[in-house]
Task: inverse folding
């Protein structure tokens, strides 16, 4: 898919693009403004040094791909979606993590962005399966997964270490075939 207007792909209201080092000031400012929205589920970087390390991993590590969801009307970064643990070969899968920023929450921008990332992952990236692991009480993230066509596949107790403890997670997934239907 050709890159347009600086985006890897775009929809009516948002475009997705990769992280860059230059995004640090805006990203960390948005993350600081969104602490109440994110806690206790998510802890994106809020300092320049933390952003540099975080973005560096997304940019340099071939098992990760980071996408910024940006408002096309000049509203800036609305959120982020990362594909982690990318496995090639017979598995062709990755695990998604995401977060909206407070100014964009509840406006449908992340739904549009997640649809774009899913299509990009199953298209140019050549993946077959994406999984989202969500804490059971994180209603907003579960609703986003459901809206974007992910199916609930299971429950994993004490799966991921978050906010000082091992937390239970629901596993939601989508495959390329589900999107093509």
Result:
């Amino acid at each position: 898919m050709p890159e347009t207007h600086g985006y890897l792909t775009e929809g009516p209201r948002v475009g997705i693009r990769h992280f860059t080092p230059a995004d640090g000031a805006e990203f960390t400012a948005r993350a600081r403004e969104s602490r109440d929205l994110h806690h206790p589920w998510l802890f994106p970087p809020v300092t320049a040094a933390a952003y540099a390390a975080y973005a560096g991993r997304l940019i340099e590590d071939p098992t990760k791909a980071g996408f910024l969801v940006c408002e096309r009307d000049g509203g800036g970064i609305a959120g982020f979606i990362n594909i982690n643990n990318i496995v090639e070969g017979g598995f062709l899968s990755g695990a998604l993590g995401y977060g909206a920023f407070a100014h964009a929450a509840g406006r449908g921008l992340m739904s549009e962005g997640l649809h774009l990332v899913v299509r990009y992952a199953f298209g140019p990236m050549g993946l077959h399966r994406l999984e989202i692991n969500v804490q059971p009480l994180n209603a907003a993230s579960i609703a986003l997964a459901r809206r974007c066509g992910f199916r609930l596949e299971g429950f994993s107790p004490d799966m991921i270490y978050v906010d000082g403890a091992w937390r239970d997670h629901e596993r939601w997934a989508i495959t390329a075939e589900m999107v093509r239907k």
